[in-house]
Specification:
The complex is a heterodimer.
Chain A (H helix, E strand, L loop, with lengths): L2 E14 L3 E14 L3 E5 L6 H8 L7 E6 L2 E2 L4 H6 L1 E4 L11 H11 L4 H14 L15 H13 L5 E5 L7 H16 L3 E6 L2 H7 L2 E6 L2 E6 L1 H8 L4 H24 L1
Parallel strand pairs in A: 3-8, 3-9, 6-7, 7-8
Antiparallel strand pairs in A: 1-2, 1-4, 4-5, 9-10
Helix pairs in contact in A: 3-4, 3-5, 8-9
Chain B lengths: L1 H12 L2 H30 L8 E6 L7 H6 L5 E4 L10 E8 L2 E8 L4 H28 L12 E5 L5 H36 L2 H6 L5 H43 L13 H26 L5 H20 L10 H5 L3 H11 L5 H27 L1 H4 L6 H15 L1
Parallel strand pairs in B: 1-2, 1-3, 4-5
Antiparallel strand pairs in B: 3-4
Helix pairs in contact in B: 1-7, 2-5, 2-7, 5-7, 5-8, 5-9, 5-11, 7-8, 8-9, 8-11, 8-12, 9-11
The chains are: A alpha/beta, B alpha/beta.
Bound molecules: adenosine-5'-triphosphate and magnesium ion.
């Protein structure tokens, strides 16, 4: 399988006046392959957004390397950005532009061939069911409409890698369901998708492999079955709670006994 | 980058609230300004009447009496022959002497009076023409070397005129208002495009497109600049129009006849182009500063607070042109904003010196370059660009400052 995302020993530290130095991401490593959905699952403040932002070249890591589609984020940021689509945690649309304008402009900004842009935009508008509100200013749209537009905007230049930060948070089940379908559909087109979430059901349903992250550290990665095996629990919720609360100490004990 | 500038400008211009504030409010204010100023001046003009453009002609050499005919061809000059220097301080006083068989002119006029100055310009053409004619005669008559006589003598004396108020409106209000309206536009644009976009989270997604960080920042600066300039020009146009109205009303008051003022003095291509060039340079510089300053904030509210000191500073600098004692000099040409305000003022009174203009443009460009070099690293900092002002660069500066303080 082709390695599309390779993250090695990634570390990011923030400095906060009150809290002092915070290791938001701490020695994190994982790999995602072509055509798979990798879920990054973690509680609030675990470091999911920070990790995704570093992947998207928004932030520079203090240590470690990230390679996306074969390009290094530090050496070749431009090519990294060309090969990925990034959806931020909030539906970030220019409030006074319409979905059609936004999608078109992002195709331009990402260097999508100009002669094909119009066709591509219309195709996406149709595919995502945006037609009805394609020319309404986005400040007037509902959260669901905005998020759907955001996803269309993210994939307009047809990038091989998609980085989605909580794509379904704040949406009702029906819209969330639609978004899950789209994500799976994109995977079937051969895209590598990494997304963060705290929604267990969503992760269970959509992801091929799951990484559980807490306090900036990746606790474990694996398919749902693998995680079930490691933890001895069945439901994702139980697996998650077990991993976050007990796994660390269990592993520590194992290490200690091994050392003895 | 063009696409991004388009996005920014569309987003800005469709923002009805800010656009109204920046473009329409001043336009609505002008009629009030118009009314206010005319009311004020009508009261004032009651005190000083007889504001006609008079020319008192004092010919002290019989040889040059024919100069009268030459001057008579200028429109709107009310020429009176006199030999009394105190005859009329309200107009231009011209003495024609004879030196070396050639005319020697001495002129008394109010150099703050744009109307007198404009007439002086016309007069000067005639005077130099007449001088050349006489010179030609002299060269023909005797066998003199041409080079010997290439100087045309005009000695100017300044007198206090009566209608300074009118000149002041033109030469002070226009530079001041055009700079202030540009600042207002730039301030609004900068806040929207930096903190506004941080608040709306659009900066983040734009940063993950194939564009480089630098071009995104520069697109913000350019869009701010264009927005400010457009706002400024709209305002400038309306303001000039209102002032034209004011002056024609005033002229009706003074002379009871319709104003036959040559507006090409202000509204000529040269003045407009040079003003626009100066304003474009200064607005680019201000855009850099405002975008950098506003960028430190996470929210619009915060960034409005951050740009306020700069807003005030620039505004005050443009107010300085009011002070009559401030004359164009090397020092003035070094002070950003003030130098441009001065240039526009001088362009309007038609007294711009090429040296001062060149110095101003040169120094402004140097300022622009230095600011660009200084501010760009800040603007590119990830923490600033993502709206978290506790940047490592700032920390570094803070650290150094703390060390320096200890010493
Ligand atoms: N720019 C920043 N400056 C300082 N601290 C930050 C910054 N960004 C994130 N942090 C801190 O880093 C840690 C990780 O934050 P991050 O946003 O990555 O978490 P997350 O897993 O995305 O959480 P959530 O589920 O709430 O989105 C948190 O403690 C957060 O406060
Ligand atoms: Mg997050």
């Amino acid at each position: 399988m082709e390695e599309k995302i390779v993250i090695k020993n990634l570390t990011k530290e923030f400095y906060d006046e009150q809290r002092g130095a915070i290791k938001a991401v701490n020695d994190l490593s994982f790999t995602a392959y072509a055509g798979e959905i990798f879920g990054l699952l973690g509680p609030n403040g675990a470091g999911k957004t920070t990790t995704l932002r570093m992947m998207a070249t928004l932030m520079k890591p203090n240590a470690g390397t990230i390679s996306i589609n074969g390009f290094d984020t530090d050496q070749d940021a431009q090519n990294v950005r060309k090969s990925m689509g990034f959806l931020s945690a909030t539906t970030a649309l220019y409030p006074r532009l319409s979905p059609r304008e936004i999608i078109t402009y992002f195709a331009n900004l990402n260097g999508y061939p100009e002669e094909n842009t119009k066709e591509r935009v219309e195709e996406l508008i149709k595919h995502f069911g945006i037609t009805k509100y394609a020319d309404t200013l986005s400040e007037k749209l509902s959260t669901g409409m905005k998020q759907i537009t955001s996803i269309a905007r993210t994939i307009v230049h047809d990038p091989p890698v998609l980085i989605l930060d909580e794509p379904s948070s704040g949406l009702d089940v029906i819209v969330a369901q639609k978004i899950h379908e789209h994500i799976i559909d994109l995977k079937n087109q051969g895209k590598t998708i990494i997304f963060s979430s705290h929604n267990m059901g969503e992760v269970e349903k959509v992801c091929d492999r799951i990484g559980v992250i807490n306090n900036g550290k990746l606790l474990t990665t694996g398919t749902l079955d693998e995680l079930r095996e490691i933890t001895g629990k069945y439901y994702m919720e139980e697996i998650f709670i077990y991993l976050v609360q007990e796994y660390e100490s269990v592993k520590q004990k194992e290490l200690e006994t091994a050392n003895d | 980058m063009k696409t991004l500038i388009t996005i920014y400008l569309k987003d800005l211009l469709r923002n009805k609230y800010t656009t109204m504030m920046v473009m329409l409010v001043p336009v609505l204010l002008y009629p009030m300004l118009y009314w206010g100023i005319t009311q004020f001046l009508m009261v004032k003009t009651g005190l000083t009447d007889n504001q006609e453009i008079n020319l008192s002609l004092d010919i002290r050499s019989d040889k040059f009496t024919s100069i009268k005919d030459s001057i008579a061809t200028i429109h709107n000059f009310k020429t009176t022959e006199t030999a009394d220097e105190n005859f009329n301080k309200e107009g231009i006083y011209l003495i024609v002497d004879e030196v070396d068989y050639l005319p020697y002119y001495t002129i008394h006029l109010d150099s703050t009076n744009s109307i007198q100055k404009q007439f002086f310009g016309k007069l000067k053409v005639k005077l130099s023409g007449y001088y050349d004619l006489q010179l030609g005669g002299r060269i023909d008559a005797s066998d003199y070397d041409t080079d010997y006589f290439d100087t045309f003598w005009v000695v100017r004396h300044n007198i206090d005129g009566g209608d300074e108020a009118m000149t002041k409106i033109l030469s002070i209000l226009i530079p001041m208002m055009s700079i202030i309206t540009i600042i207002a536009g730039i301030g609004t644009g900068a806040v929207e495009l930096t903190a506004g976009h941080t608040e709306d989270k659009t900066t983040e997604t734009t940063l993950t497109t194939a564009l480089s960080r630098k071009s995104i920042i520069l697109a913000k600066v350019f869009a701010t600049n264009i927005y400010g300039l457009v706002a400024g020009i709209i305002n400038f146009t309306f303001l000039t129009f209102v002032i034209m109205q004011i002056i024609s009303v005033l002229m009706m008051q003074f002379t009871n006849k319709k104003l036959d003022f040559d507006w090409s003095v202000i509204l000529n291509l040269r003045t407009l182009l040079l003003s626009l060039l100066s304003l474009a340079i200064i607005s680019y510089m201000m855009s850099l500063i405002f975008v950098a300053a506003a960028g430190f904030a996470k929210t619009r509210k915060e960034s409005n607070i951050l740009i306020t000191p700069f807003f005030m500073a620039f505004m005050i600098m443009s107010y300085v042109v009011i002070i009559p004692a401030i004359e164009p000099s090397l020092v003035i040409s070094l002070v950003p904003v003030l130098n441009i305000a001065m240039v526009i003022k001088l362009l309007i009174v038609n007294d711009i010196q090429i040296v001062f203009f060149t110095e101003t443009i040169l120094f402004s460009l140097i300022w622009m370059f230095l600011l660009y070099k200084l501010l760009l690293p800040f603007m590119l900092e990830e923490e600033i660009i993502l709206g978290n002002s506790n940047t490592s660069l700032i920390k570094q500066i803070k650290g150094r400052f703390a060390k320096w303080k200890k010493k």
